[in-house]
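Notes from the 1:1 (GR / supervisor)

We went over the backlog. Supervisor wanted to see one worked example end to end before approving the batch request, so GR pasted a single chain during the call. The sequence is below; no edits were made to it. Supervisor asked that the structure be written out right there so they could see what the output format looks like.
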Amino acid sequence: MGKILIGAAYAVYAAFWIRFFMHALLWARAMRRLAPAAFTAPEFRIKTWALTVLDIVFFGRLLAVNPLLWLGEWIFHASFLLVLCRHLRYFLNPVPAWVWWMQTPGLIAGYVLPLSLAYILVVRLLTKHERYASPANVVLLGLVLAISSLGVLMHAAFKPNLVEVKLFLFGIMSFSPAAAPDSLLFTIHFALFLALVQLLPMHIFTAPLVMYEARKRDEALQGLMHDPEG
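Structure output shown during the call:
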């Protein structure tokens, strides 16, 4: 089973970067075809970037549309980021001090994460007036819910050997594979993670740039509408 997991990890890793670069290339070509924004002054760009950062960090547009969903989404994304930071200790050697500082917040976030996902699924499925839950989106949320729930189980009750986990994961990252931990829950946890990476839509990673372009067009359009010479 360990060799299968290692082979699957490298296959998913290669497929991820191929999809990422192809999507980035298509996005760059699409951006070149667009007409430049009407306003390119430095103060306009700074304002646009600032508003884009606020959109990314605080999900301002979602808050305006659905405050209930916004609450769950913000908690989910914050928890997910903290959990990822906590897991970096398995992939880095030596482990930076800031990663160790993130261990307790990441542990708390690990318990909050599945609760926030359950909340999001309920809100999305019960929201009638808008279609917030496409089948693909529900599958992704379900995968993250399963992965995070297994993580909670492994921390609370069925602990794998963390030394074996570290050797296995760091071995994959350093291209010197080691034996997989003798833990069924970890095997399922890791396999589901690989499935999640494979199913992730690439637009997630270019979303900040897309949001910047959308904000830039909005600002340019507002400027044209208020232009006294227009």
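Supervisor's comment: Residues 2-33 form the longest helix (32 residues).
Batch request approved.
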